[in-house]
Amino acid sequence: MVVVVTTVASFEIENTGYLDASGRPTRPLPAFADDRDELVSLYRAMVLTRTFDAKAVALQRTGRLGTYPACLGQEAVAVGLGAAMSPEDVLLPYAREQGAQFLRGVTPTELFLYWGGDERGSDFSGPREDFPICVPVASQVPHAVGVALAFQLRGEPRVAVCVSGDGGTSKGDFYEALNVAGAWRLPAVFVVTNNQWAISVPRSAQTAAATLAQKAVAAGFAGEQVDGNDVIAVRDVVGRALARARGGAGPHLVEAITYRLSDHTTADNASRYRDDESVGRHWREDPIARLRAYLTAAHGWTKDDEEATLASCAKDVERAVEEYLATPPQPPEAVFDYMYERLPADLRGQRTAATEARAAAVPSDDG
Amino acid sequence: MMAEQDGLTMVQALNAALARAMSEDARVLVLGEDVGVDGGVFRVTEGLLDRFGADRVRDTPLAESAIAGLSIGVAAQGFRPVAEMQFMGFIYSAVDQLVSHASRLRWRTRGRLTCPLVVRAPYGGGIRAIEHHSESTEAMFAHVPGLRVVIPSSPARAYGLLLAAIHDPDPVLFLEPKRIYRAGREDVPDSGAAAPLDSCFQLRDGDDLTLVTWGAMIVETLAAAEQLAAEGVTADVLDVATLSPLDMTTILRSVEKTGRCVIVHEAALTGGFGAEIAARLAEHGLLSLRAPVKRVTGYDTVMPLPRLEHLYMPSTERVLAAAREVLAFS
Ligand SMILES: Cc1ncc(C[n+]2csc(CCOP(=O)(O)OP(=O)(O)O)c2C)c(N)n1
Ligand SMILES: [Mg+2]
Q1: Alpha-carbon Rg of chain B, whole angstroms?
Q2: B201-328 adopts what CATH topology?
Q3: What residues have a C-beta under 5 A from ligand 2, the ion?
Q4: pTM of the predicted model as reported, rounded to 2 decimal places
Q5: Least CB-CB distance to B112: which of A124, A160, A173?
Q6: Domain boundaries, chain B
Q7: ipTM above 0.85, yes or no
């Protein structure tokens, strides 16, 4: 008896990179990389992000910020995708997309406020439609589907860009959302920041799937990998995914391969589950050093340029720290004021009691 | 024909409210499992696909968290989604989205992003349904600040409250007591008029006793009140309608008058929403009370399958027994 086996589906996952770890091109670069200013702006955005990140950790260590998730080593992912987006797109971040948020007009002061425990940090003065940081892992992914649905219904050439982590791809919300986005051919780009860790659980223990990119295949659209420490590659691959989605070709998934050089958060101690040596090895992949090497070789980046960039980023961050620390807390009523558009009658009593208790506890200026 | 003349069932009233809202406001979308061609498994969305098209009336993939989550996303973009959970028994995988996001998007962004979302779900027992199709877990949701929980108890209130829920700028969980989906008809003019949210409805006026209930238990509660009236005892019957935020003012005012209160709900006793009302009566109405507050509820058990279901559901007799108990205090 002859058994006829037919292949009814198959897929390939590509991986794109342009610069090797030492910053040397491995193939011709995309056109935008000819533009020195463009590369310098990517570089500065990564340096600003790292400067902010280090300051946030320092503020936490000295009791002036809450628990903070550093993005050390992952700056190229957020900066690359943030640079690829158009202002009218909507970003739905997870938590380590500081670089993308800054490029989109979220201010360092706002992020300090948020991680310092003040809701006003999510009232972005810049990108008014962008979503705030999302703590319940992967629960933001379905929101991106809804945002993309709104764009599709209104016929707007806009794209919802959603970021989640490698751990996040194990969640039902991740699969459910991708599935709907595929079924409805929505203008959404899903970026998975594969930083190899979900707190202490390594990528290898998270799933038996060979890549995270292939999770898109089951949802009926393509996924690919990109070298997440090569900002040129991230900018390029996400940019092309955005252009396709904007043109009506539907969703796309980009798995950016990077490495979390920091602890999971300031409340974590990564030495409990990984050794310094492997972290040290990954420092050789540092996305900032890589682009600096390329800028130096190809665009005459000088020591002066470098120092000026570091100084201006430090200045921006210092100014933000001052603004953050000088921001008075919200008044007690703020606990109630954004629960509903109009405060329900049933809550009025609680609001009055809370504000009166507060007034009684704090001696008044003239008292 | 005759049925039409006799008014609308709750299903038809809900359908009329959806059609009204969709025709008045292009931002209103209907989405969920089988809400399109099939018109919803209870037919609440019947005819909407033909009338408003597949863009606005969407069959979703079978994924409750995605339904809730994408509704939040599209609501934040200014649409007014009305999402259907096919049965309340399947809402639990959407709870994270409702609790962690819908209820707090406005708050956490200081009003920058909002969530004008309605999630509808048929709930409650008494229709001899299969497992997981009969529970009443409204108290779980009433515990969530920022989420309105609204339950109609008649066709007219279903029409008015659903319109109000859709007009409301904040998220509403709209629970539909499916036992009375088709139990009675009522004249429901398609006036487009919303009923007040956050307000109890007084269904009967009386002096001797306050009966507080919501949803399908209105049937047993009104029957008990009728029986008591025949015996010369008059009861205020209050339909809570919006569990959260609660209109305690109306309940307190009634108990100040009557001095006695029985709370009736088909959900389990412990941590049921009756506990909240009883606690508030103890806090704010103790001196008006002439008898302990009694609760008539389902038991702290799994909701039984149809053969034993009637034992679980509060009956008119149980309501009457509780009423007599509180009336016995002089
Ligand atoms: C649903 C949920 N479960 C658990 C947590 C606690 N937690 C916060 S971050 C995290 C790991 C996330 O890993 P990944 O998705 O890879 O993102 P990364 O933190 O590495 O950037 C966990 C378990 C959470 N925030 N949400
Ligand atoms: Mg990770």
Answers
A1: 20
A2: Rossmann fold (3.40.50)
A3: A 165-166, 195, 197-198
A4: 0.97
A5: A124
A6: 4-180, 201-328
A7: yes
